[in-house]
Amino acid sequence: MRTALKLSLAVAAVAVLVLVVVFGRPAVDSKAAAQSVDAPAAADSVALMARQPGPAANGPQQAQQFNEAAFISDLRNKFAPHIHIQHAQIRSIEQLLSYLKAQYPDDWEIRVQDFLAELFPDLAADLYARYQSLSQYSQWLEQNRADLQRMAVADRQAVLWEARYAAFGADADQIWAAEVRNHQLQQALSELPADLPPVAKAERFLESVNAVYGEQAADFVASRQTELTNRLLATPAVQADLRSLAVPERRQVLRDLRQAMGMDEEALSRWGELDQHRDQLWEAGQSYQRERAQLLASVSADDLPHQLDALRQSYFADAAAQIRIEEESGFFRFAGERRYGRE
Fold first, then answer.
1. CA 314, 315, 320, 324 torsion: positive or negative?
2. Angle at Cα 333 formed by Cα 329 and Cα 337, nearest 5°?
3. DSSP symbol at 54
4. φ/ψ (deg, to 5) at 339
């Protein structure tokens, strides 16, 4: 019995890896430029700074000049196609600031204007004004971060938008457009009627995606299919639906729901296999939890660690050490309520 369970655990791990390899992680929505500017700047510039000088570089000064020229060229090529978009302007400035702070920690601020002029000469004045607005907003965020964290979500959003409009004017709507759309989708998920069948919930959610993204909806769904499906599956209403079903019916509903979200037959087949392996994994986990509870109630404190190690090894084999680390930190992966379709 336990040998079969060990095998199912190993197969489940392989199945997860296959899904990642075949379908990959959700693609970035380049049209929406979805990353919020409240987040730290991306690591692109850090990677660029790490470049090694080519054969023409002789000595530290020439090496730095080589790296700087490469950074400017790459940053320009990356953002030139959409530098007219306000969000792209903010992202390019953030990545420039990340580079300057790392390269010139003592006087990076006095270099911003010259670098912007070298990057995009025709837009240098506008970009420098945008940089000043970003600095104003970032300073305000830093000064008010503790107060913002204590606020209710709705209140925090209201205060953030007030500060954004103060710093960027009407352009704030464009700069944070991706955040607005994401909030609209989350709102749509939270408002799904509980009495709708799971597949009807998926169809209603896709209607909301179409309303929010308009002409970009098809591309957005295609590039974020797994992410959108997981967001739908994570809602309490859908989890309640899945929890109420027997195993065969639940697997069929998961298949129908993913099909409604646009997955093709190959994807449906692979996710179906993963669902089956996850069921076996959780069956093993529940058995382990029961035996663990019996050991806690019957084994002496001196002998308990050894007995628990043996029990974990019998159920989880190579994963036993990780399970032990999790439990020692207070996390018991099979003790909580299972998130169907997600684990």
1. negative
2. 130
3. -
4. -100, 100
- How far is residue 282's CA from residue 271's CA, in Å, rounded to a whole number? 16
Give CA–CA dist 26/219, Å, rounded.
Answer: 12
Distance of CA 37 to the CA centre of its chain: 15
**Torsion angle defined by CA atoms of residues 78, 82, 83 and 87, in that order, rounded to the nearest 10 degrees:** -100
In sequence order, which ranges of the chain are alpha helices (DSSP H)?
2-23, 44-49, 59-79, 86-103, 112-119, 124-150, 153-168, 172-175, 177-190, 198-213, 217-223, 225-233, 236-243, 247-260, 265-298, 304-316, 320-328
**Nearest Cα to 29, choosing from 87, 94, 103, 89?**
87
Total count of residues recorded for the chain: 343
pLDDT digits (tens, 9 = 90+) for 103-154: 999 999 999 999 999 999 999 999 999 999 999 999 999 999 999 999 998 9
How far apart CA 24 and CA 312 sit, in angstroms, is 31
34-84, pLDDT tens digit by residue?
333 343 333 333 222 333 333 344 555 555 655 888 999 999 999 999 999
